[in-house]
């Protein structure tokens, strides 16, 4: 009999490939850990609602596997203030053209440049980390001066 006419196990048919787990250490801020926990709670609630409605939960299962792994591997880093840019720091840069940019250096999953957060593995974060106020760093083809760190 042609396999197209055989009903597969629903769980197998609904299985989706896992999200890729980044290879870097899962450093998070306290806020980042809270966001992971909130995402797990949201997904569990939506999965329950989908089950009750008789809908597929494959997407929720896949997302829950990802976020539970991220929660289990999370390492909360508390910001230190030693005068240098580091994980958890908020840094303000002044570019050569006078434009000011402010970013907070956070974990991979917490990063959202549109909200002013950058992943610690991003090129910009890597360029500024370890530097202090007044230092000039290369950002692509531009230079920028670190004018504030908090």
Could you walk me through the main structural features you see in this protein, from its secondary elements to its overall organization?
This protein has 150 residues and is α/β, with parallel strands linked by helices. Helices cover 33% and strands 21% of the residues. It contains four helices and seven strands; from the N terminus they run H-E-H-H-E-E-E-E-H-E-E. It has helices at 10-14, 30-52, 58-73, 123-128, and strands spanning 27-28, 75-76, 90-95, 100-106, 117-119, 136-139, 142-149. Helix 2 (30-52) packs antiparallel against helix 3. The longest helix is centred in the N-terminal third of the chain and has 23 residues, at 30-52. It is elongated and about 60 Å long.
Topology:
Layout lengths: L9 H5 L12 E2 L1 H23 L5 H16 L1 E2 L13 E6 L4 E7 L10 E3 L3 H6 L7 E4 L2 E8 L1
Parallel strand pairs: 1-2, 4-5
Antiparallel strand pairs: 3-4, 3-7, 6-7
Helix pairs in contact: 2-3
Give the radius of gyration. 21 Å
Which range does the strand content fall in? 15-25%
Q: In one word, what is the shape? A: elongated
Reported by name, the CATH topology of the largest domain is: Chitinase A, domain 3
Instruction: Determine and state the CATH class of the largest domain.
Output: Alpha Beta
Within CATH, the superfamily of the largest domain carries the name: Transcription elongation factor, GreA/GreB, C-terminal domain
Q: What is the spatial order of strands in the main beta sheet?
A: 5-4-3-7-6
Low-pLDDT sequence parts: 1-13
By DSSP (H or I, 4+ residues per run), the number of helices equals 4
Mean pLDDT: 90
At CATH level 2, the architecture of the largest domain is Roll
* Element-by-element helix/strand order: HEHHEEEEHEE
Q: What helical percentage do the residues reach?
A: 25-40%
Count the domains.
2
Q: What oligomeric state best describes the polypeptide chains here?
A: single chain
Span of the ends, CA to CA: 68 Å
Q: Tell me the structural class.
A: alpha/beta
Total count of strands:
7
Largest sheet: 5 strands, mixed
């Amino acid at each position: 009999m042609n396999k197209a006419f055989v009903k597969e196990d629903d769980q197998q048919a609904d299985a989706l490939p896992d999200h890729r787990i980044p290879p870097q250490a899962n450093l998070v801020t306290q806020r980042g850990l809270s966001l992971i926990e909130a995402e797990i709670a949201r997904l569990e609630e939506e999965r329950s609602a989908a089950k009750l409605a008789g809908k597929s939960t494959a997407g929720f299962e896949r997302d829950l596997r990802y976020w539970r792994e991220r929660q289990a591997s999370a390492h909360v880093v508390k910001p230190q203030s030693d005068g240098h840019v580091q994980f958890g720091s908020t840094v303000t840069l002044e570019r050569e053209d006078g434009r000011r940019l402010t970013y907070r250096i956070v974990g991979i999953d917490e990063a959202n440049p549109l909200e002013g957060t950058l992943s610690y593995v991003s090129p910009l974060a890597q360029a500024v980390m370890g530097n202090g106020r007044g230092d000039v760093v290369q950002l692509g083809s531009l230079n920028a001066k670190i004018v504030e760190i908090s």
